[in-house]
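Exercise 7b. Backbone tokens:
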């Protein structure tokens, strides 16, 4: 058994997948045979070559029995790591590329691996096709998103930018409003400083002035001869003003104090505009 040929005297050869020889002898059973099964070669598994060997998981190819040494022909070759993964080869182990979640496992049927590596979606406060393709922080956020190989498969530093000078709000993405007395707008943007626009101080309104800065946030006072006040507000025109011209005082006449008052006939003196109540100084006295 395990050999073939016409007969022993003519010569017998071990069957494919067997190693050894068959030699004729004069005593029963008239031959000696060392034909023995060859073990499955490296990167394959099975009982032995004649019974059949299959390439190990992660290897492609076949093992066939032949009659010449080493008595098998093996094409078992390690399969390369599939797309979106990296490593020496499937049997040695493949890991999903940075930005991909999943795993690669070796199996014995084509394509000799299972691959669940899938691109991770862009994290919160960022936008893009997916992490491997690239994600950018949303408008109003500073930072970046990088692909990594460990869970959650990205590193994100996207942080909401604080409201800029002369504005208030939770942050730029949530919305910022110009402070009272300032005009303008703040809009979220994707490039540094991650917002556009600005808030500018409104100049003191008519019939008022400020010192040293003539702007509403710094404070405006009604001009000499005017009574009232100026207050900063958040809605256009970004101030409220009650500055009103003071009427000419007793014993004088004119449109009002700012435009000028003259002492009545029979009175000597003058009327001057001042900035403190009663917003005029009168010296009109009866002659």
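Sequence design result:
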């Amino acid at each position: 058994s395990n050999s073939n040929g016409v007969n022993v005297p003519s010569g017998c050869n071990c069957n494919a997948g067997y190693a050894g020889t068959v030699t004729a002898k004069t005593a029963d059973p008239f031959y000696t045979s060392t034909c023995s099964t060859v073990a499955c070669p490296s990167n394959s598994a099975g009982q032995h070559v004649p019974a059949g060997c299959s390439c190990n998981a992660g290897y492609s190819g076949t093992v066939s029995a032949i009659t010449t040494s080493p008595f098998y022909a093996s094409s078992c070759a390690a399969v390369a790591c599939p797309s979106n993964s990296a490593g020496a080869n499937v049997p040695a182990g493949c890991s999903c590329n940075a930005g991909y979640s999943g795993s690669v496992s070796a199996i014995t049927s084509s394509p000799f691996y299972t691959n669940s590596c899938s691109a991770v979606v862009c994290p919160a406060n960022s936008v893009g096709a997916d992490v491997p393709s690239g994600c950018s922080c949303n408008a109003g956020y500073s930072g970046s998103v990088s692909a990594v190989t460990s869970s959650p498969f990205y590193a994100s530093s996207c942080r909401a930018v604080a409201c800029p000078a002369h504005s208030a709000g939770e942050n730029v993405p949530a919305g910022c409003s110009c402070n009272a007395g300032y005009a303008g707008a703040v809009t979220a943007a994707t490039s540094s400083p991650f917002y556009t626009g600005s808030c500018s101080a409104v100049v003191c309104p008519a019939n008022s002035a400020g010192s040293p800065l003539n702007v509403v946030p710094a404070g405006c006072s009604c001009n000499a001869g005017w009574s009232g006040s100026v207050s900063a507000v958040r809605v256009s025109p970004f101030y409220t003003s009650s500055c009103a011209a003071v009427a000419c005082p007793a014993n004088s006449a004119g449109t009002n104090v700012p435009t000028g008052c003259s002492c009545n006939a029979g009175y000597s003196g003058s009327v001057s505009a001042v900035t403190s109540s009663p917003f005029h100084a009168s010296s009109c006295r009866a002659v």
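Instructor comment: The two ends are 157 Å apart (CA to CA). Residues 26 and 111 are 55 Å apart (CA to CA).
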